[in-house]
Write a structure and sequence with these properties.
alpha+beta; Ubiquitin-like (UB roll); five-stranded mixed beta sheet; globular; binds FE2/S2 (inorganic) cluster
Length: about 160
């Protein structure tokens, strides 16, 4: 079947069978930054933004992306909002090994986007569902708080420039 969508900001129509997962369909479109890890929806290696919300593309059917926006990590990294997160990770001492970067980065993005003043008690449960061998959840929670502050500062600066 044909699935029209917006992929990394560009209109596109992808081909997939009814049982094709989004990860497989995206990798066929040369989005090799969408990685396969556990293939069970647990690790975040395959995470993408589907209509601005993180999803594990290894378990989401490709058909769910019909008429939606899909953003993969390599494109996300070109956006100013990623610079806030990258700086926050450095500030918090979060070091990603490369395996589940997409899951971690999009989870932080989602928290930062949903809440203006994210609280540690809300952040920790939201991050707990991601399996990860490397990153301490407390450091990651700090990164969410720093990223939100950096984003607020950047948005204020952008407004004053206009
Ligand atoms: S590969 Fe999809 S969540 Fe692990
Ligand atoms: S950063 Fe998650 S496994 Fe390494």
């Amino acid at each position: 079947m044909k699935i029209p969508l917006t992929l990394n900001g560009e209109p596109r129509t992808i081909e997939a069978l009814a049982d094709t997962k989004l990860m497989e369909a995206l990798r066929k479109e040369a989005c090799v930054d969408v990685k396969c890890g556990c293939c069970r929806g647990l690790c975040g290696a395959c995470a993408v933004l589907l209509n601005d919300a993180p999803v594990p593309s290894c378990i989401v059917p490709a058909a769910a992306a019909r008429n939606c926006s899909v953003v993969t990590l390599s494109h996300f990294k070109t956006l100013p909002v990623y610079d806030d997160i990258d700086q926050a990770f450095r500030q918090a001492g979060v070091e990603l090994c490369g395996y589940c970067d997409a899951g971690k980065i999009f989870a932080v993005y989602s928290l930062v986007t949903r809440q203006e003043l994210p609280k540690r008690e809300e952040i920790l449960p939201a991050l707990a569902s991601l399996e990860c061998r490397c990153v301490d959840e407390n450091l990651l929670a700090n990164a969410v708080i720093y990223a939100r502050a950096l984003r607020t500062r950047r948005e204020k600066k952008d407004k004053n420039v206009r």
